[in-house]
């Protein structure tokens, strides 16, 4: 009798609570449940059976499964134990060059002997659009939600980024010789200024300057860009301390300064700068980098493929330099997803340091997320799964044969995963790839357009005697 009464009382109590509980539930747009959440916050908090809640374009809650009782979402993604982590950030690429991928991979002095002549013949608005569409799809399918680009006709790249729904910093190239969209550096600067004016208020696109390198621009041009970038508060992306040719040319110009010292001496090393590669640098250069608060893009696969050397990226990371992973363009690193860099970043730094414990997986993942966000000065918006940040989130399949089992998610991501393991990609709160289907663009059409363009590339390559296959 006593038991019955207790049961009845508790049943009544829960009935009474029901309407109250449901009305008290907070509304959300998207909730990801049953997830192994890698937040990549300051403490590197992991929720083994976690939940991420999104409203509009922001993360409004991250935590354990109890969050499911507090929120009522329009859409629920039950990911069945998969890894949920911040979207990857590719800090350096030339997305449109996908249409040139696998051409003349091992030609010596390739940039000057092959790439610049090839670009002179083939870079156009169409080429930039077709290549960017293809590269965007590759990146989204590889878990990249934000990228930093340096190329020509960046207004065309911007249209593709807007359409697919990614986030990007797009840098219009400035270089001293005639190129497809400018006859000289001054015209390049004008082009960049128009582009910056057009896109400065876009919610997902940050327009920027991209002087190609110190040795392919004059001191005056580099100084002018630096001054304009500070006035307009836009980033400047540049290839820096990348090659011995550059080191020699800059030493000639500056009475023996290194590229980093030279940039500092002309007042062009500042918080708006993102230097790609940074291979040929010493401790003094690193001190200048730290003092300037500039960002660094570390592109391991491109750097070792070109045999240019290994950047002291681990030292920079350990000394709190703003440094993140990049892929470089698809003619250099050949793939655009930073997941495919992870393995090489970990292993080459171990080899160089002759230390198995050097560059552990958690540092690699940090450099692909928060480190990359810091390199681009976007750490207050992206790079980790924390309340208030923009909802750029990826889901990694942990049931694929190459991922089973996952005792340590960081190790699994760095040593086992590949870009094909990305299951869902969410940018700005919107799912843009679900179960590997692109939701905002037509992947087949984009691939076909790229294949059609390869006919033009083949004809040009075969016609040209200077091009080596
Ligand atoms: Zn590059």
UniProtKB/TrEMBL annotation:
Among Pfam families, the record links this protein to: Amidohydro_1
Q: Which InterPro entries match?
A: Amidohydro-rel, Metal-dep_hydrolase_composite, Metal_Hydrolase, MTA/SAH_deaminase
Residues annotated as domain Amidohydrolase-related? 83-432
Q: What residue range is the signal peptide? A: 1-24
Q: Name one GO molecular function term.
A: hydrolase activity, acting on carbon-nitrogen (but not peptide) bonds
Q: Tell me which domain of life the UniProt entry assigns to the organism this sequence originates from.
A: Bacteria
- What keywords were assigned to this record? Hydrolase, Signal
Q: Which family does it belong to?
A: Belongs to the metallo-dependent hydrolases superfamily. ATZ/TRZ family.
**What is this protein's name?**
Amidohydrolase
